[in-house]
Design a protein that fits this description.
Layout: E1 4-5, E2 12-13, E3 26-30, E4 35-41, E5 47-49, E6 57-59, H1 61-64, E7 72-74, E8 88-90, H2 97-119, E9 136-140, E10 159-161, E11 164-168, H3 174-183, H4 191-207, H5 214-221, H6 228-238, H7 244-247, H8 257-280, E12 284-287, E13 290-293, H9 302-322, H10 335-348
Parallel strand pairs: 8-9, 9-11
Antiparallel strand pairs: 1-2, 3-4, 4-5, 6-7, 10-11, 12-13
The protein binds zinc ion (ZN) (3 copies).
Length: 349
C-alpha cells in the first residue's frame, strides 16, 4: 500500500482515513487516480480537490451513509457505489450493530484487495453489470441456532464459485478466526488473506480457464482436471505430501492445482503490498553492496522484487519477534515457489 499526504497541510494520511487528523479536512480515495486526496465542499453534496479545479466528486453511498468506505465517484458518473462497493451482492443485516462492525472489517480488507487489483490494472467488473464474467461478494453470517428449533443449520462456507466470492462473516471476528486457525493448524489466517486467496480463484476463471496456452499453466501448477472434491478430501484426511515445502508455499497449496494457484496468487499480493508499503515509507536495507532503497514492486523487474522480499521478510519477522509477536510472514520461498510466483507475475502481465 502506498502512503499519502494531505494536499492541504502535508500531514501523513493512511488508506483508510476519512478526515485529516491534523487539519480536519475531508479525505477521500480517488480510485481512477489511485490516490488519497483532500477535499472541500463544492455544493449540492459534491466535492472538489482542496484548492479547487479538476473533476467534481461524490462520496460512495457506503461512505456517505454507512461509513464503511472512503472512496469517491466522479460526479458525472451515475453510479451509486464505488468500484469496490459495487462488487457487493449480499451484505449482512446491518441493523445489528455487531454484524455491522464485522462488515466494516470485511470492507476494509476488500478495499485493500481492490486497490492492489486496480494497481495491477486487473478488471473489477461487477456481476450486476456482466453476469457471465463479473465478480460479486456475498458476506453471509451463519444461521442463528436459537431460531432453528434444534436443527443443525448449514454453516456458511468461505469460497468462490462462478464469480461469486462468499466469505463467512465470522472470519471478521478475531477470536473466532484465531480459533479456526489453531484448529486447522495454520500459521497464518487473516481476513485480507481470504480476500486475496478467493480472488485468485476468480482470476483463474478470467485469466487461465479459457486461455489457449493453459497447458503452460498446467506445467507449473499441475493439471486442474484432477477430481477436486477427492483431492481436497484426501488433503484433509492425509495432510500434505512429504517435503511439500520445497514445492508449495503452504500445505493447503498441495491439495489441488487450483488451490496452489490461489495460494500462490495470495502470496504474490502479500509480497507486493508489503513491499509497496515499505518502499513508500522510504525503507532502506543493508545489502552486500551497501545500503539500498526498497523498490516499488509494481514497476521494477520481478527478480528485484523477489530479492527485496527475501531481505524485507527477515527484517519484518525480526521486528515482530522484538515485540513478542509471531512472525508476520512465517513462510519460505524455495526456488520452485519463486518460479511459480514469477510465472504468475508474467502471466498477469
Ligand atoms: Zn490536512
Ligand atoms: Zn465504496
Ligand atoms: Zn481455495
Amino acid at each position: 500500500m502506498n502512503f499519502f499526504t494531505c494536499d492541504h497541510c502535508g500531514a501523513r494520511l493512511f488508506f483508510e482515513n476519512t478526515t485529516c487528523l491534523s487539519c480536519g479536512c475531508t479525505i477521500g480515495f480517488l480510485p481512477q487516480e489511485g490516490r488519497i486526496a483532500s477535499l472541500e465542499p463544492a455544493g449540492n453534496g459534491l466535492w472538489q480537490r482542496t484548492g479547487g479545479g479538476g473533476l467534481l466528486w461524490r462520496k460512495c453511498r457506503n461512505y456517505e451513509v454507512e461509513g464503511v468506505c472512503n472512496w469517491m465517484i466522479p460526479a458525472h458518473e451515475a453510479a451509486e457505489y464505488c468500484p469496490a462497493c459495487a462488487l457487493n451482492r449480499t451484505i449482512p443485516d446491518i441493523s445489528d450493530p455487531a454484524k455491522k462492525a464485522l462488515w466494516a472489517k470485511m470492507e476494509a480488507a476488500k478495499h485493500r484487495l481492490c486497490y492492489a487489483l486496480l494497481r495491477h490494472r486487473l478488471p473489477l467488473i461487477p456481476k450486476s453489470v456482466d453476469e457471465a464474467r463479473g465478480l460479486a461478494f456475498d458476506f453471509l453470517a451463519d444461521p442463528d441456532p436459537r431460531f432453528d428449533e434444534g436443527r443443525s443449520p448449514d454453516r456458511i462456507l468461505t469460497g468462490h464459485q462462478n464469480g461469486v466470492i462468499t466469505i463467512n462473516l465470522a472470519e471478521a471476528d478475531d477470536a473466532v478466526r484465531e480459533k479456526m486457525r489453531l484448529d486447522m493448524r495454520e500459521v497464518y489466517r487473516t481476513l485480507l488473506g481470504h480476500f486475496r486467496h478467493e480472488s485468485g480463484h476468480y482470476f483463474w476463471d478470467r485469466l487461465v480457464r479459457d486461455h489457449p496456452a493453459i497447458d503452460e499453466v498446467r506445467a507449473v501448477f499441475g493439471d486442474e482436471r484432477l477430481d477436486y472434491g477427492e483431492a481436497v478430501r484426501r488433503h484433509y484426511a492425509e495432510g500434505p505430501p512429504q517435503g511439500w515445502g520445497e514445492r508449495f508455499v503452504t500445505p493447503y497449496a498441495a491439495a489441488h492445482p487450483w488451490e496452489d494457484w490461489a495460494e500462490t496468487w495470495a502470496h504474490y499480493f502479500h509480497i507486493l503490498d508489503t513491499l509497496e508499503s515499505a518502499a513508500a515509507q522510504g525503507v532502506h536495507l543493508m545489502g552486500e553492496k551497501g545500503v539500498y532503497p526498497l523498490r516499488d514492486p509494481y514497476v521494477h523487474p520481478f527478480g528485484d522484487v523477489l530479492d527485496d522480499w527475501h531481505a524485507l521478510r527477515i527484517v519484518l519477522n525480526s521486528l515482530n519477534r522484538s515485540m513478542g509477536l509471531p512472525d508476520p510472514y512465517p513462510f519460505v520461498i524455495s526456488p520452485a515457489i519463486a518460479a511459480k510466483l514469477r510465472f504468475l507475475h508474467d502471466w498477469i502481465g
